[in-house]
Amino acid sequence: MGRPDSSNKDLRNTDKPNADFKKHKLYKTRFEFSNMPNSNFRAVSAKFACFIRANLAGSDFTGANLTNANFGGADLTNVNFKSAILDRANFKNAKLDGVILDNASMKQCKNVHEAM
């Protein structure tokens, strides 16, 4: 049985706190302006996913592959990115208060230091 596949879906403006996407494929999925605090994104494959201005505060992205994801202007307060792959991800104007980045890969990340 493979991973649930929600790739290329348009989930903009979704209002779904505590959503569970654990181990989903989310390639190029669009979450712009969504309200999804305290959601489970553990071990997702979300390359090129777009989270612009989404509220993801308190969510868990442990072990997620977020290569080239866009978190521009997103609320990532207290988000857990432990062991996540954030290579080339964009964090311009994101809120990163209390974010956990232990063992995360952040090669060529954009704007992460300015946001912290």
Automatic annotation (TrEMBL):
One Pfam family it belongs to: Pentapeptide
Domain of life, source organism: Bacteria
InterPro entries the UniProt entry points to: 5peptide_repeat, Pentapeptide-BTB/POZ_domain
Protein name: Pentapeptide repeat-containing protein
